[in-house]
Amino acid sequence: MQDLPDGVVVRPGKGQLDRVSVDTAACTGEVYLHGAHVTAFQPEEQLPLLWVSSKSAFAPGQAIRGGIPICFPWFGPMRTDLDFHQHEKPPQHGVARTSPWRLTDVRRSADAVTLSLSPASHDPFSKWWPGKFAATLAVRFAKTLTVALRIENRGTTPMRCEAALHTYFFVGDVNQVEVHGLEGVEYVDRVRDLQRFKQDNTPIRFDGEFDRTYVNTSSPVTVIDPVYKRKIVNQKVGSNTTVVWNPGRVKAEPVIGLAPDEYKQFVCVETAAATDNFLTINPGETHTLGFEASSETL
Ligand code: BG6
Prior knowledge:
This protein is mainly beta. The chain has 2 helices and 21 strands.
């Protein structure tokens, strides 16, 4: 690795896992090499944009609860209609988030820092999936947060996979926020036996468990948070699926492992290529899935 620019350090973080920390006049941020997991982003003079559970594991082989887990090469339970090898119980949301990644490049331009990471080994992936691939996660910390997962097919046959950037946005109280931008969009409801419905023409509000995979949508999504008096905007590229998730009070502690009432502190708005919108990448081609998230005071 090259010398790191000012404002960027790599040191052991929680659980002694390697963590890249960024501190500039524009923002602070951090990424763990474990899972290439972004765990913090805070623009100058604003509240943090991302949320991480106080109960999260920080350990090899376990997913961090919060921040931006990368779901790849599949989303949710492994699909049986793509090309995966199902020889034992597959881990939920793929293996990228529990695999080691390495830092391959760091660039600073004025107050923007861009980190690039790639999987340290393909073994955890090839155990489940025949894809011959290269993947790079680029994370740009500036006044806004930009994250892009670039996937290249290095094989000789079309490569099928799913991917998601499973962002946990920090909010004052999930039961008071509104999510705009998915009005009229079809979704698969994981709370109601994967049945399909169409979102009505009102913003999303939360009152209990909410787990919807919105398909065929590239629209930006806005989270309005009246408690923290701010608006978060998530704009996507290369993504036709948006997942909106919060476990609600009942499942939060026993199933998801959160501290009491922590479920109120986040809403997941996930930039995805999943379900109907899984990716087929031809040999030699690439697909980039990404988003830019920004916040402003209301
Ligand atoms: C969401 C899924 O993306 O992730 C939910 O839609 C799932 O069904 C949630 O419960 C959390 O998944 P995990 O594996 O991090 O507990």
